[in-house]
Structure formats: structure tokens, C-alpha cells
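Practice problem: predict the structure.
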Amino acid sequence: MEVPSGVKEVEVFQMQEQAREVEEKGQSEQSNTPTAHDADAPRGKEFGGGSENVDPSAVGDVAHPEEDSSDLTCSICLEVLWDPIVIPSCKHTFCRNCVIKSMHSSPNGQQCPNCREDILVDPLTCKGDGVLQEKIELSLSAACLEGRRRSAEAELEELQKMMVHAFPIFYMHPGCRPGQRVQLYLFERRYREMCKRIAQTDNFFLFMANQPSSGQLATLVLLQSASCDLRDNYHVTGMAIKRIKIDQVWIDESAYGLFYGKFTSSENLLSSGDMIVNPTEPPESAEMEVPVELPVFHMQGGSCRRGQPVSLHMFERRYRALARIVSSTNKMFIFASEQPRCGSRGIVVRVTHCSFRSDGTANISGRGIEEVCMQHLSEQSDYPGLVFAKCHLSSPDGLAALHEASRSSPARPRQSQAGRIIGTARTSCSASCVLM
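Answer:
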């Protein structure tokens, strides 16, 4: 049976149309393949293209996704590390800016966020991990690298403007000035706790002349050495760095009533802009007033004046104890010609010679160096009948004698809680102090 020619033409036409549709469909699928590949770029190997065919900008921040970036992630911000620093005590690594924010905003800012080890470094000035930073830069695309650098620099600039510090406060008249050397003998419980804390953290504390309050000026002191004696009291040496204004003051009851002060600084705490150029130069005596506590020798009607030689034979039990004290500590005592009382005056005697006889009595020679006002009187159970008085030395002779004594022997431990307070003329000092 012959097929009509018309039928053949229709079939041929249909076959051509079908072929054209197949061809157009194939071209459409081929042109759409890169778009599908881009959409699933992280799974490039599943599409057979391999990581070398993946557009780096579509992968994210990492230009080499085949590298393991788990060791390049900061556990604080959960992003790729930038300007990483290593905590010495535990070897954990964080972004520099993240550590700064953690130290100054979180309750446990002085401790590692991962393990709570003390940080013990200044994140603003400590050296970063250059090797790790180089590895990070190699793992980032050029565009991401530049963006991350600009972002970190801008954030650090803002952090420096808002840098907040909080340190314990020691206060005692007359305070200290930038550039001075500070020597303290600390026996109060709160200040013993202060020594333990600052030695384990920043090595800074604030020194104020009066009881702290917000808005007052304080001197920032860098702790240089701290030693504890057998009575758990501390001999502290430091350097006064700069004057700062206290923004906020509070009392830490867990530290037995220790004052804390908070302030904002936009620069490194150890910058020397506020320091005296020559810190070894002795201060002007007219501006100095150093608190001391000395035993009192009382002789009714006795006479002693500044600059006058003094020779005494001490046979009473309390004054034999006085001779032992002055011969082993600062070699000074107060000569009172009337019964000691708060507000009465006496002459500070600098001992130049002290000898003891076989019967226990003592011969003392010295010279009067300064007239003082006795402000706070007390007795100790270790020395029955012997009165101790707190006063302030301000004359050149008094300061020179105190300076010389501080170099040869530490201040005598003074534990007022073991004695009897006789009276006080005004707020008493809380520690023996030498400022040089």
C-alpha cells in the first residue's frame, strides 16, 4: 500500500519540529549549568568541577577551602582570628580586640574565657602571634583581607577611646606624686589582700591622699616588688606613674572593705607623658609630709629642742623596750616633756648611739630633729606601758633621717588590733610609708 505523499510531508515536518525542540532544550540546559553550579558552589566536587573550579568569592572568607580552619577560629567571636594573641598561662588564642573587650566588659575579664586562668598580660600592648597571623592572611581572599583589616583597626580605635580600668585603692596622707618611688609597709587586712590581688593580675594600684570618692585625683602606682614577712604583712616597693581622675568608687566587701576605683584611659597605662623627667631627684621638702609611728619617751619637765643633743639612761622596763625598738628599726623616738595626749607636741630624736648594760638598762645618745604633733596614741600588749604616737615628718632633717632608716632596716610591724588605743586627734594613718 503506497503512503500518500501528504502524510510523508507531515511526518517529516513533525520529526523536524521534535529535533528542533530537543536541540533548543539541550542548549538551554547547557547555558543554565553554571548558574546551578554557582548556587551549590560549596559542593563543587559533587558536581565534578573540583575545588579548583569554584569561585572563591562564592565560598565565603576562605580562599582555600581545602585547608582546615578549625585552628583559625576565635572562640569569643566565632570568626576567623585576626591579630591573634596567645594567653601565656594557658596558651589559648583569641583576637586581640576580643580579649580587650572581654577584659573590660565581662565580670571575669581578668581571666581566660575558656579556662579561667589569669590572663596576666596587657592585650593592648602585648606581642601578637605573627606566624599564625601570616597563615590567616594566606587563607583569606584579597578583598576579605582588606575588609577585615579595616574593620579591626576601626574597632581597636574605638576600644582605645573607651578603655576602662579598675584598680584597688590605697589611701594615706600625703599621697604621692608621679615619678616618686613608693615604699609601704602594709599590715591592715584589706591591704594585705590588695597585695595578693595586684601581684597576681595587673601589678597596678591607685594611691590617694584621702578617703576615696568619685571625681578625685589619684596616682597610678606600678608594683615593682612585694615581700611578705612572718606576720603576713607586706613590704611593697613601687613607682608612681601618672595622675588620673577617678570616675567611680566602690567598696569590695569580699576584700575586707578594700576600695576600688574605675577610670577611663585612651592610652597605654605605662606611657610616660605625666611622669617627672628625673624620678630620682628628691622632692622638695616643703611639699612632703610623711606619716610615721614612733615610741614616746616621757620625762616630766624634761627639756629637748630641735638641734639639741640628747643623752639618756633608760632603766624603766618600758623604756628599755623603747631602746631595743629604736636600735633595731628606724632609730627615732619622740621626746615628750609632759604626759602624752592627743594633740600634744614633742620632739623627734634621731638616735646616733645606743648601748646596753649587763643589767639590761640602756644608754642612748641622739639629737632633736623636728617638733611634731602627736595625733594618735596607742599601747601594745608586747610593750606594757610604752606609748606609741603617730605623727608627720616634714623637715629636711626628719625626711633625711627617715630616708636613711628605710634603706638600712624595714619598718617595725605594727598591729594595732593587739594593743589598746588611747586616743586620736584625727583620722589615723593605715601604714608606714616612705616616699623617695
